[in-house]
Amino acid sequence: MKLSRREFLKISAGVAATSAALPLIQTVQNVAASDAAPRAPDPSTPLRAPARATYDEKYLHTVCSLCPSGCGLEVRVVDGRAVKVEGNPLHPLNQGVCCPKGQASLEVLYSPERLPAPLRRKVAKDVAANDIAQWEKISWDDAQKIVADKLRALREQGQAHTVALLHGNLRGQLRPLLQRFLNAYGSPNLISMENDLARLALFLTQGVNGYPIYDIDNARYVMCFGGSILESSQHLQKYLSGYGFMHRGQSNRAKLVVVDSRLNVTAAKCDEWVPIRPGTLGALALGMAHVLIKSGAVNESFVKNWTFGYDDFKDDQGKTHLGFKRLVLEQYTLERAQDITGIPGSTIAKLAGEFGSNKPALAILPTGRGDLLSGNGLSTALAISALNALVGSIEVPGGVQVQHYADYAPWSALPSDAGAEKARAMPRLDGAGADYPVALSSYQTLAENLAKAKPYAVNALFLLNTNPILDAPQGQRFVDALKKSFVVSFNPTLDESAAYADLILPSLTFFEMWQDDVIEGTGFAGVALRQPVVAPVRDGRNPGDVILHIAKQIGGAVGQALPWRDFLEVVKFRIGALGISWDDLVKNGAWSALVYNFAQPGSKAWSKVVGRDRVNAPKDGRYDFFSRELFAALNPSDDVACLPHFELPAEPANAAYPFLLTCQETMTQPRSCVGVVPSLQEIYGLQVGSRWDSWVEIHPKAARALGIKKDDLVWVESAAGKIRARAKLVEGIWQNAVNIPYGQGQYTAAQWGREPSTAKRVVGVNPLQLVSTSAEKISGLAMMLPTRVKIYK
Amino acid sequence: MKKFFAITILLTIIVPFLPATPTVALPEYSTRVGEPCGSCHTSAAGGGLRSPRGQAWVAQGKLNTVPTMDESLKILGVKVTTDPADYIAPTPSTTAQGAPAPAAPLATRYERKMMLLMRLLEYGGN
User: Fold this and answer.
1) CB A597 to CB B87 under 8 A?
2) How many C-alpha atoms does A704 have within 13 Å on its Cβ side?
3) CA of B125: which chain A residue's CA is closest?
C-alpha cells in the first residue's frame, strides 16, 4: 500500500485522536461494567487460570522447617510432583513471601542424599559408616521392634533414665509429645540444642517463658545488639517485613541502628552501624543505661510502679539489697563503657540520647545461632532487656510484645508409675537443673559426660533434627560418645553423626507428612499445618508416628500415656479445642487470632504478659531489674548475680592468639540435618563472591600486617584446633576480629553436578571445631564466641 | 480519502478493545475493589503485610470487593474471644484495682530448681 504525505498525516491525526479518546472510552466501559456487575463476591474472577485438563495441577500448603521462622509455603503440585514453592499468602508471618531457603526447599524433598529406607549398621561401631554400602535396609516393623525391645528391656532393668534424646529445632506438637513420651517412659533427658538465651532473658526479667517479639513496625528507634535480624533470627520474616514497614510504611521514618563487630547484612541495610569489640555488648547497654538514668530519660512512672529492683530495697529480713540504678551509676560510667567496648563515649552518649528521646524505642536481642554465646551472654541479655524497661517499651506499640499461644486441648495426666517418677527425678546428663541452676539445656557438656559415663552411662541415644558432630562446639568429641551408646538417628541423610548410629529411621520432609506448627513472631496466637503435598519420595516416616508406634510396643504406662494411632490424631486432638474448621485449616494452611491487643499495666490481661510463667518469683506484674527468679535459684552472696551486669569473657587476652573469632549465620544456611542444598550453596557467600566454600573475613590492615592478600588460603588456629579457608579482606569488621560463617564443613554424599576434580566431599570448613566447649555457669549455655585465634598462611 | 476514512474507522473500532494498561494512578487491586491501599495493608501506602481484611480478600481469591472486618474474621475462622476491657487498666479514681500491688518480699527457694527446669521445658512454642 502506498500512502501520500497528506494521507499519512491524516491517518496519524486520526490515530492520535482515537488514542486520546481511549481512556474516556475505557472509563465508560468500566462504569458500565461496574453498574452491570454486582459488587458481591464473584467466583468467576479467580486470580489464576483454571488448570488445563491435560494435567492435574494443585496448590497445597505446608510450613517450612529449614529455619526457626516457620514460614507458610504454597506448593504447586503437577501430576503428583511438587514443581514450585512460594510463600503462603494466608500465613500471617510471611504473607506470601519466602526467603531463598523456602524457594530452594524442593531440593530437600528430592535430594539424592536422602536415605531410601530404615537402615541397620553392618560394620563395627568404631568406624564412621558414611557409605550406604555399610548399611542394610530393613523394614519399618523390624526397625521399630528393635528400638521398642531395647527400650522395654532398659525400663524393666530400672535403666529408663539412661535413655536420652538430643534434638534440634522441634515444631508444633512434636515437642510436647516427645516430652510426654520420655516422662511416661521415665527419662529426664530430653536435651535441646537450640539457642534459648533470649527466651531465658525474657523469663528471668518479665516472667514469660517464650521468645520476645519486637514490634519494630511501630517503633521510632530500633537498636539491634549483635546478630543479624534480617539474615538469621528466630522470626526472620517478621523482621524482614517489619524493616520494610518501619522504613517505608510510616510517614515518619524510624531509625535502625546495628551494633556489631561486623558489617553484616542487617548492618549494611541500617541507618547507623556501630562497630564494637566482640563480646562486649553488655557493657554498651549498661553504659547507655547510665546515661539514661543520669539524664532523667527513664520512664519514671513505669519504672516506679511496674518494675522491681530499680532502687535499693530491703528484704523481709531487713537486709538492704543493691538496686540496678546504683549499680549502673557507680560501676558503668561512660569512660568504663568506652574502655570495654572500644566505642567512643560521645557515641555511647549520643545513642543513649536517641534511645531515650525517640519513643517507642526498642533494644533487640539477637536470636541467631552463634549469637550472644560469649560467656557473659546471660548477663548481657539481661542488660539489653533492661533498656526496654527503662524507657517503658514493654507491651506498648513499638515495644516488646509477648507471644501468645492458642488454647490447645490439655494433655491428660500421665498414668501413675512410681518407677518412671523415680527415674525422671535422676539428674540430667547435661547438668541442667543441677550444675546449671537455670539452664534449659547444656548440650555441649554432653559429649564429655557421655564419654565418661558422667553422671551415669547412656544406654540409648536418639538424635532428632540435629547432627552434634557438626553442630556442637568441637563436635568431634561426640564421636567417642556415639561409639559407646546404642544410637538411633531420625535424620534423613547419612550425616556425620548418623554415620556412628546403630540404626537410622529416616524422617520425612515437611512436604510429605502431617504436622502442626505454632505460629510465632506475630504476638497473637496461631496455628499452621504441614501436610503431605506429595506422596513420600523415600520410605521415611514422621518421627511422631514412630514414637507413638514404639510407645505402643513398649506398652504398660507408656502405651497408655500415648494412645493415639498416629501423629495426625495427636494434632487433631490438640487443635480440636480451638474450635476452628479442620477443612479450612487444611485449605488455608494457617489459622491465627489476627489481632494483637496490648495490655495496659494493671489491666486484667497484664498478668498474661508480665509474670505469667514465674515459678519461684511472685506474679505481681513487675518487670525484674533484680531477677527474683535468679535470686530464688542461686541464693547468691552478691546481689550483682541477680542484676544485669558485665563480665569479661572467660578467655583472657593472649598474645599467641591475637584475633577474636566470631561466627554469624547467613540467610542461606538451612538446618544441617537436611544435608547440602545446592542452590543455597551457589549463593552461600554472595556478598564476598564465595560459593560451595567457607571464607575468613579479615580487616585489610590486619591482613597487610600479616602479608595476607585477598583469596589467600590461610590457617585459622585456636587452642582447640585449626582450619583453613580463603581470606576475604573487608573494611566492615573490627580490626582484630575475624569472621567465619556458621554452618559449613558438612559432609555430602552427592556430586551435585560439580566437576569431579573440584567436588569436595566436605563443603567448606566448620568454625565450631575451634571454639571452647565451656558452659556458662548459670544458664549452662555454650561459651564459645568470640574465641581467640591466630591467622597465618 | 476513502482509504483514510476506512483506516480511521477501523482503528476507532478495534483499538478500544485491545488490551491496555489503565492510565490511572492507583494500583490495580485498589482500582478494582474501589478502596484505598490501607484497607488491605497495614501500611496506608500499600505493600507489605496485609490487614485481616486483606488476608480475607486473598483467601476469597481476590474478588471485586473486600470483605468487611466481621466478614473477614468469619472467612478466616477467627472467633474473637477476648474482651477489650481486659486490656484496659481501671482508672485509680474509680477503683483501686489498677494500682500496682506492692512488691512481694524477696525469697530464696533454692530447693525448687528442678521445678523451675520443668516449667521452662513446658515451653508452648516450636
Assistant:
1) yes
2) 6
3) A518
